[in-house]
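Input:
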Amino acid sequence: MKSVKAALFIFIGVFVLSGCGTTGSGESGPTDGEGGAGNGYDSGASTTGIDGGETYGAGAYAGNSVFDPANPRGTRVIKFAFDSSEVAAEYLPVVAAHAEYLVANPDKSVVLEAHADERGSREYNIALSEHRGNSVADLMKFQSVSPNQVQVMSYGEEKPLSYGHDELSWEQNRRVEIIYFGE
Amino acid sequence: MLKRLFLLLIILPTPVLAALEIEITEGIEGAAPIAIVPFGWQGMAAGAPLDIGAVVAADLSRSGRFKALPTRDMLTKPTDATKIRFRNWQALGQDNLLIGQIRETGAGQFVIQFQLFDVYKGEQLAGYSMPSSAKSLRHTAHRISDMVYEHLTGQKGAFSTRIAYVTVKRLGKGKSQYRLQVADADGFNPQTITTSAEPIMSPAWSPNGEKIAYVSFEAHRSAVYIQTVFSGKRERVSSAPGINGAPAWSPDGSKLSMTLSVGGSADIYILDLITGSLRQLTKGYSIETESAWSRDGRTIAYTSDRGGKPQIYQIPVQGGKARRLTYEGSYNARPVFSPDGKSLAMIHGQGGDYRIAVLDLDSGLLQVLTKGRLDESPSFAPNGSMILYAAKKGERGLLAAVSADGRVHQKLVMKGGEVRDPAWSPFK
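Output:
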């Protein structure tokens, strides 16, 4: 636990530094635009699934602190700037909160579903979204989350949340969704 | 408008439904006038099983290099060379004339004869007789288009080739159905070769046109498959942890380059399809993806953001120093070599729009060919005449094509769904 605290301390330091000059409420974190991403990991496939896939999207999250909107961990979608894989300062506490939970609950694990907006080429966007997923995963691992608890899945522009061809839609689609196994 | 009406008219009488309806949107001025007389019919039934002349007329018009005379404007409709009055066709301003006959030689068996004339010289340029089964009549018609095109332009026709593409149908509740389809180059005879509830991407034809490599997320993670088009038999060639994407065939078909991220970041790897050995070509934390083999098979062009923004680089297949090829604009990605190897088509971002551009490798000049906001996935026709690409309109994706000189534009619209990721087959 000591190392976790040390990591968190460094982490918060990073946040404070990078948060300098930004206005607004890093503390409360952004509200989760997707209503807690309750749609979860709804694969909808008839083909072979990865292990544990059958429990995805079961939606049994009522009352679980992970989904408490007042908790930074209630935010499960991290948004990114165009062609960037840098986790914005406002999301650092969100990642930290999830990391803390994962460290405290080594039996839990997450899939980081990483996405891009539709602009540019499809395969480049797959790679770009993987970088986004890796950025989040690296932050979590930096806080002593075991690599076994974090998996990145990059979908590029293939699974948009919003189908519009405008900045509003693109902003929704440039994201990493933190999805807990079995919840 | 006239052209649209004409295409509609000739599409209607055909028995096979087109999945993609092709519409020439720009660039028919300056096209060479050609009269294609409805082919004569000698057989048991009242009429020919296929209006071959109409298929040929549609093919040639679609190339943008020819303007077919509407049949209603024809004064006579000869099906036999002795009945041709060249002066009539001269008066109609036609450069060339194509006539033909379909003869039934047995049950479901036909012989198609055709003759191509120079109207001004009053000379025959070509004359052929081809056997065809009932099933392959459309294909035979496309082969006639190929021959006419080659005689008149000196360039091999690509009308009898095929296209592969991915369709997406949204089923609601966040579920979708993805299909990998193969159709004739004119959008007819669509056949689904793979269906999945998860994304399918990046189809790539093998150089002999027998196989298609593609990416499928059907196992909830990406994997690269190679599928034999006719048998439907397939093989999973890569399912490493992380990305398995962007398959591209070497010109001799013995190797497949791919993007894998098993090493930590997207890099280009070369899989030897004969020995099964895998070799990493690029290394680094930056994104390296979308490899394309040069025609001589010695170098690979690819997208890299090593300089901060995606640009096109080129590297020897054996490895070595990468050379940057694009300098214009802050976004250049997804390179593909022209069949003659002299240019690269790519996605070029400018002022927030993403368009198809062609880079002349000798001069370094970049020409933007399209006008969309979100154009992507360029693929050359095997004769280099056209570039097929994906575009977006409203909430839908559609295919479009542009001539390599940017003059002719066409749209391939699929009814009731989205279509993307086109790949034009090689010559067979």
